[in-house]
Amino acid sequence: MEKQFEKPLLKPEDNLWFFFAGHGRRYKDQDYLMFLDSSPAAVDRTAISVDEVM
To answer: In Å, how far from its chain's centre is CA 34?
Structure first.
């Protein structure tokens, strides 16, 4: 999933609506989006930081 965010997908004039239906978790002073297969014991490896999405 992280590879999808490595390259720019939008141009400066584009708009993006982002909707996430799921759970989140605070871990080491960061907020994470938790997926169906995310592990609470390995948040930094199995979830994605909200900062990376924004």
So the answer is: 8
Exposure string of 31-47, with b = 16+ CB inside 10 Å and e = fewer, is ebbbeeebeeeebeeeb
Q: Give me the amino acid identity at 49.
A: S
For 26, list phi and psi in degrees, rounded to 5. -95, 130
Query: Which parts of 1-54 are beta strand (E)?
Result: 23-27, 30-34, 48-49
CA distance 27 to 43: 7
| pLDDT for 47 beyond 80 | yes
pTM comes to 0.67
